[in-house]
Write a structure and sequence with these properties.
Order of helices and strands: HHHEHEHEHHHEEEH
CATH architecture: 3-Layer(aba) Sandwich
Largest sheet: 4 strands, mixed
Shape: globular
Bound molecules: iron/sulfur cluster
Low-confidence stretches: 227-236
Oligomer: single chain
CATH superfamily: HUPs
Number of strands: 6
Structural class: alpha/beta
Number of helices: 9
Strand content: 5-15%
Helix content: 25-40%
Number of domains: 1
Radius of gyration: 17 Å
Mean pLDDT: 89
CATH class: Alpha Beta
Strand order of the largest sheet: 1-4-6-5
Length: about 240
Amino acid sequence: MKTISSEINIEELNASYANLSPLERLAKFYKDFGDKNILVSSSFGTTSAYLLDLISKSNRKQEIHLINTGYLFKETLDYADDLSLRLGLNIKTIKPDFHHHQYTSQNRTWEKDPNLCCSVNKVLPFEEIKKGKDFWISGLIGKQSHSRKDKDIFERNGDIIKFHPIIDIELEEVKSYLKKNDLPTNPLFHKGYESVGCFHCTAKGKGRSGRWKSSTKTECGLHLPSEKNMKAFAIS
Ligand code: SF4
C-alpha cells in the first residue's frame, strides 16, 4: 500500500525547509500538509513551551498528546494544565494499559528493566496513537544529546515522516524566546531539574544528565527507530 512516506522525497523536503525559521517551517508545513493526519506529543518538560507556542500560533486546532505514564510529577501535570489554558492548546491525555501499568508498579520495573517499563508505559500507548498518522511533529533539539545531534528536519520512521522543526535551534535561543514571550517553563526547572520525565527516573542535573542517572539508558524509546521498539515482552 502506498503511504505518504513512500511518495515523498525527503531530501527535497529537507532542502526546501532548511533556511526557514522554526515558525516559518511550521507555517509552510501546515500549508503543504495541513490536510494530512498529523501527530504531536509533548512531555511538558523544561523547553516544551517553545514548540507548543509555535504550534499554537500555526494551528490552534492541532491535537497535542500527553502520555501520562502514571509516574509524572504533579508539577508537570499542573504545568500542562496551565500552559494549555494560556496557549489554548487542544490537549489529549493518553495512559498505558491499566493492568500492564499495575504490573510495573508492583514489580518496580523501572529499577530492574527501565526499557521494559518505558515500553509499557510510554512506547506502547504512543504506538497506538501513531497508527494511521502521516506525520509526527517532534520537539527534539539536536544540542540536547548525542543521539539527536545528526538528525535532519524531516526523516522517515517506518510509515510515518518525522518533522523536527526546532532540531537545529540553540538552547540559548529557546531560553530567550521563552523570556521574551513571557512563557513559563516546567516549575521543576527552577528546582534544579534541566530535563524532566518520570519521578522514578529523574534527578536534578544539567542538560539531560539527571535522566536515568543510575543506568546507561538515555532515551525513553519514543524516538528510536520503530523496529527497535517492537521487541517482544510478556507480562503475566
Ligand atoms: S521513565 Fe522510568 S518510570 Fe517512566 S516509564 Fe520509563 S522507566 Fe518507567
